[in-house]
Amino acid sequence: MRTFKLTIAYDGTAYAGWQVQPKRDTVQSAMEKAVASITGQTARVTASGRTDAGVHALGQVVSFSVETDLEPDVLLRAINAETPDDVAVIDAAEVPAGFHPIRDAVSKRYRYVIRDGAVPDVFDRQYCWHYRHGRLDDKAMARAAEGLLGKHDFSSFETSGAPRESSVRTVYDIVIRRGDSQQGRAVSQQGRAVSQQGRAGEGDRIVLEIEADGFLYNMVRAIVGTLVEVGRGAQSEAWPAEVLARTDRRAAGPTAPPQGLFLLEVDYPGP
Amino acid sequence: MRTFKLTIAYDGTAYAGWQVQPKRDTVQSAMEKAVASITGQTARVTASGRTDAGVHALGQVVSFSVETDLEPDVLLRAINAETPDDVAVIDAAEVPAGFHPIRDAVSKRYRYVIRDGAVPDVFDRQYCWHYRHGRLDDKAMARAAEGLLGKHDFSSFETSGAPRESSVRTVYDIVIRRGDSQQGRAVSQQGRAVSQQGRAGEGDRIVLEIEADGFLYNMVRAIVGTLVEVGRGAQSEAWPAEVLARTDRRAAGPTAPPQGLFLLEVDYPGP
Which helix (H) or strand (E) is B87 found in, with range? Predict the structure, then answer.
C-alpha cells in the first residue's frame, strides 16, 4: 500500500459539502469515484477538514492509500481526467503511511470575500457574500479583528452541537483588506466595466484572511458575521473581543453565508 | 413613451445566447420578462449585438421604450430585483427616442481569456478557453496580431452564412498580455494557491482585448483561433495577415470556444 497526499481545489457551488452523504453529490464522493476508477480499489479519501455545502477550496489537502505503481504526477493527471470540471488536483505527493491530513495539520488558512457594492456582480455571485445594505467600514472591522488574535476559547464562534475535546484555538493572523485584486476573485472584470460607468468598482470587495492552528465548526463564518456587525456600525470595535470573552455562541453575530468562504491552504510540518 | 439605455452584465453560461428563442433561456427573454413585470408592458429589448451561447458580457448595451414614471435609477434597482442572479443592470439612463444600440454604436471592445496551464482552474472553467497542450507564445501572438490592425475586409474571420452589407471593419486596438490580474478574471485565487505549490500560477492566463468599429459574426473567436495557431508554433507570425488578405474563412484557424469571450464595452457618440 502507498499513501498519497493531494492538494485539491473545488468550486463548492454544486456540492452538498465535502463529506459523503447518501444520494447527494459531495466532493469526497467525487474524489473516491475517481480514485476507484483509476486504481480499481475502494479507498476512503480523508480531508484536512469538512467543508459545508457551497464552501470552496483552493488548497484542501486530502489523502488515501492504495496499491499502485503510478507515480504522483501520473496519478494527478489521471484523477483530473476523472473528476468533474469543478474539482481539480493541483498537487500530488507520496507520503509515509502514517500521514493523516487532520491530525498532522499544523495550521489552516481561510479566505472570506464580501462585496458591499450596490450593483450585483454576476460573475461573483457564488463566490462572495453580497452585502446589500451599504458600505461596511473595513478599517473598523480590521481593528476589531485584532481582539481575536492569539490563544483563546473560541466557543462563542462555534456552532453548537459540534462535540470537541477543546474549543481553545490559536489565531495567528487576521488580515482584512478592501479591493485587493491579488487577494480576491474576479474583481477585475466586472469591477473595471462598472467603474467605467462611474457606479462602482474594485473597491466593492472586502477580503478577510484568517489563519489558526485549527478552526471550530462554522468559526470563520461566525467571526465574519460578528465583524460585519462592527462594519455596519451596529456594534463597537471592542465588541468582538467581548463576544469572545463570553464563550457563548448567542453573544456573537449571525453566521455569514457559505459561498464567500474558501479553504486557502493547510500547512504540515517539514520542509 | 420614454426610451432607456441600460448597460448590463451577464454570465452567459446558463443561456442559449442573447436572442429570444422558443423554449430556451436567453438573456433577451430574461430582460424582457423583467421589463414586463415592472412596467406591465410588452417591450422589445434590443442589444448592441447578439452574443452566442456561453458568451459573457461585462458591458452589453440594450435599450427599450415604455410608458413609465420611473426614473432610471429606480428602474435599475427594480430590474435587478426581477432578473436572475446571472444578469445585472449596472447602469441606466434615459435617452432620446431615436436611440438605437446597434446603429448608434461607434466602437465595441471584447476580451478573450485563454489559460494554458497544465492544471485546470475550477473557478475559471466557464470563463476561459483552457488550452491543454502546452505553453503558448503570447509575445509571438501579440506581434502577429499587429497585422490585423486597421481597416480591412475581415471576411476570412467571419463565419459563413451571415449576410452583411459589407465585411470591412476597422480594428483600432489589439492588446495581448499574459497573467495580468487587472485584465483577467479570478486569476488570483487559484493562481496564488497553485503557485504556492510551485506548479503553476498567474502566468497561466493570456488575455486578449480587441476594439473595432464593429465585428462580423464570430470574428473575435476566429481571430483568437488563428492567433493560437501562431502561439503554438504551427504558423508563422506573418500568417494571420496572410489569412486576412485571402478574404476566405477556410484560410483562418479554428473558431475559439465561446466561454472565453466577454463583451467588454460599447461606445456611443457624445460626452
Answer: strand B87-95
CA-based nearest distance A109→chain B, Å: 11
User: What ipTM was assigned to the predicted interfaces of this complex?
Assistant: 0.80
The pLDDT tens digits for B13-54 are 999 999 999 999 999 999 999 999 999 999 999 999 999 999
Residues of A with CB under 8 A from a CB of B: 7, 9-11, 56, 58-59, 80, 85-91, 111, 119-123, 125, 127, 181-190, 192-194, 196-200, 262, 264-265
Between B58, B88, B194, which is nearest A189 by CB? B58
Please write the tens of the pLDDT for every residue from B210-240: 999 999 999 999 999 999 999 999 999 999 9
Check B190 against A58: CB less than 8 A apart: yes
Domains held by chain B: number? 2
| Cβ-defined contact of A125 to B85 (cutoff 8 Å) | yes
Domain match, B221 and B167 both? yes
Q: How confident is the model at residue B202 (pLDDT cuts 50, 70, 90)?
A: low
A100 domain-assigned: no
Please give the residue of chain B at the shortest CA–CA distance from A117. B90
**Same domain as B119, residue B60:** no
Mean pLDDT of chain B: 90
Q: Is the residue at A257 inside a domain?
A: yes
Which residues does chain A have within 8 Å of residue B175's beta carbon, measured at their own beta carbons? none
Q: Which residue segment(s) compose the domain that A145 sits in?
A: 107-267
Size of interface A-B (CB pairs under 8 A): 129
Within 8 A by CB and 6+ apart from A116, the residues are A131, A134, A135, A136, A204, A206
Q: Assess if residue A102 is contained within a domain.
A: no
d(CA B179, CA B192): 12
Q: B94, B67 in Cβ contact below 8 A? A: no
Quick check: A258 and A55 in contact, CB under 8 A? Answer: yes
Collapsing DSSP states into helix, strand and coil, what is residue B206? strand
Whether residues A189 and B262 touch (CB distance < 8 A) is answered with: yes
Q: Check pLDDT > 80 for residue A192.
A: no
Last residue in a domain, options B60, B95, B130 = B95
Which cell numbers in the block locate residue B161?
452564412
A45 and A80 in a single domain? The answer is: yes
Residues A76 and A151 grouped into a single domain: no
Residue A224, domain CATH: 3.30.70.660
Please state the pTM of the whole predicted model. Answer: 0.86
The two most distant CA atoms of chain A are separated, in Å, by 60
- Mean pLDDT across chain A, nearest whole number? 90
- Whether A190 has a pLDDT exceeding 60, the answer reads no
CATH number at residue A28: 3.30.70.580
Asked if residue A114 is part of any domain, the answer here is yes
